[in-house]
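The freezer alarm interrupted the setup, so I double-checked each line after restarting. Inputs confirmed:
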Amino acid sequence: MSENCDSLQNLINAFTNLPSVGTKTAERYAYSVINMDEDTVKNFAESLIQAKQNLHYCKTCGDFTDKDICNICERRQSKVICVVKEPKDVKAIEKAKNYTGLYHVLHGTISPLENKGPEDIRIKELITRVTENEIDEVIMATNPDIEGEVTATYIAKLLKPLGIKVTRLAQGIQMGSDVQYADEVTLTKALQDRREI
Amino acid sequence: MSENCDSLQNLINAFTNLPSVGTKTAERYAYSVINMDEDTVKNFAESLIQAKQNLHYCKTCGDFTDKDICNICERRQSKVICVVKEPKDVKAIEKAKNYTGLYHVLHGTISPLENKGPEDIRIKELITRVTENEIDEVIMATNPDIEGEVTATYIAKLLKPLGIKVTRLAQGIQMGSDVQYADEVTLTKALQDRREI
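Predicted 3D structure, all chains:
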């Protein structure tokens, strides 16, 4: 088959463009496509085109949307904004189904290594939004790594003089995990931030 | 985003149709598609449609092809046929790059549990091919499990009276593996089939 059949090889090659998909997995995917019914494959192809054509950033929060303003920005009345690095983070927090506030996607973090300064991510837009909309609280939900911490601290310094409450996602032992397997930094943080029960 | 944006959700759903792809992986794939350039996405969609539309079984060997007769059947002159369960097996053997004979894809094995008898797989076509084309040898390359063994034995019984040499892929310790980790059945087989060096 290696010397056989372009249609199959093209499809296998297409699948290897996906993250962490090697030849073996791409082959499995390709063969599974041949066994799907025709409508499923048509919908699959259509959804690829549609997603690429329609998706862009929400003018307000920067999350992906197929409209001008995303549903969350349009429908939710809230004085709380949760600031995240990427659209994926919005999806993760939405799945937890406990947050009913707004979002702001930075599309990156301050990272000298990647040559990214504060002006390269959507901080200016955040400040404008916060001041124009009487926001009470900004929750910094950037990742708990160096870039995420630096970005959170930087934004906090800008917002606090404006009288905005700035909070950070709690850090500590992961739910469902074992204390014995937690790393030292996490344990130190969990001890520092311990709370009365 | 869960209440946001059909284009993204449709694409995520489409990816979950692939084997062993859950929501998390589908999301990763979907976000990566949004970051691909437009041509790559168009080619991806096109290759899905093309594969589904063009691929069918080769009239001779039963492997996938986008023509009437696959390249291997068309180009190779050989009196040896390797019999496999699925098109994937052809691909695997071709990758080893050491076999230059023909193939015959059974599209299944004899399996009473799945209610599959000899007439449900492409055995009749094999017999016709072998007798009409003066084949010297048939290599049974069905899997080394019960169904594969039963199918190999069944076909051997049909072919031997016709004076055809029927062989089976060697079974034994896997190359690069450890003797200590080999299972009992494999070790027994490897001892029985030991060869002089």
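Quick read of the result. The two ends of chain A are 65 Å apart (CA to CA).
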